[in-house]
Amino acid sequence: MKVSSLFTRPVQPGPWRTGVLGRERREGGGEATVDSCRIDLISRRKDSLKAGSMSRLELCSKLWSRRSTRRACQALGIDRHVPVAALSRSNHDVAASGTNSEVEKIHNELVETMKGQRIPQSALVFSLLESCSSPQDVKLALDAVARLRTTKAVQGQQQANFGSKLSQSVLDACLRAKDAENALKTIWEHNIYGFTASSESANQILAYARAQQDVLLMQKTLRTMSLNSVTPTRATAEIALRICKDQGNHKLLHALAKEFHQSGLKFSTGLYDICISTSANAGDTKHALEVQQWRSKCKLPFTTATTFALAKVQLLKRKPKDAAQLIQAHVQESEEKDMYLRILVRAWPVEVLSRKKRSVIEGNLREDVGAMLDELRALGCNVKVDVAEFGTGKETLRKPVYA
Questions:
Q1: For the chain, what is the mean pLDDT?
Q2: How confident is the model over 215-246, as pLDDT tens digits?
Q3: Which terminus of the chain is less hemmed in, N or C, by CB atoms within 10 Å?
Q4: Which residues contact 5 (CB under 8 A, 6 or more apart)?
């Protein structure tokens, strides 16, 4: 997925880029008439209609009907070559194997009510959604919701989408059934179910993706938000970046952080800590310093996590004295300082050397860490860790200490 286009609506290709009109302009160099394009489009079909056997109005009507059908099928994911009769499903066709008997019973009751052009009780619809526990159950529930919207629209009782309460109940049912694909439909701007898309629903899907440790679902959710004009919030950035941090994907984390920053979102102090620390842990000094520039513009005070992350950056730049002065100036709590120093000396080298050319920087890094510890002692700091412990620890750098 190209991250840089996550929150930018893509430009749709116009008739000057694709299709017969564009081809004729490129080949002939002149203006093609609309009628010639229409006739050419029709004549290309196997079941082509003879232009001379009908009026221009009939030709345009046929062409528009076919175009509309094709676009509608593409939007709904329907194969145009499937017979229409196959799309007119009965209750038994919709009910797939593995559905809950209670769900199927409520679904059939709802459908029978709507067949008589009567609106079912809201409690029955919510009862159906609360009973869903599998993707097959969700399929029945979505069928009932689509029928309900159609019935209400026909009777003139509904002129817009359903409220947030029903959309939220559908989303809860999808996530409970572990049906992420249908959950994404609740944040579609245009859908046949009448859902109201919102950033809150998108954030709930992202929270589910984090619980499942599913980076792909996170990317799908962000892309769906972009395509459907769902504006990301600070909570969106918080969840998405924490997913990247949990998975140790510092490149995706920084790419997303940059995208969120450019869209105008303000990060929390903890989120800045995550971005800077994750980049520093991976040895990515450029991105760590870039996020620090964003942070300094917000005039946020230094935290222990950010201080030690920037100290790591100075060590990678072979400036151990600057690293020691940073730690001494911004970290006063002795116990906290000792804990972070132990992680820096024991665990961090293992992480950074696994991503860098070990033979090139291992000796330099060990030397610079020792020089930093000596400088801290010279500044009056009681250092309880020794350079002999360099790269020997089993502490993980992905624990909440940096969160």
A1: 77
A2: 999 999 999 999 998 999 999 999 999 999 99
A3: N
A4: 226
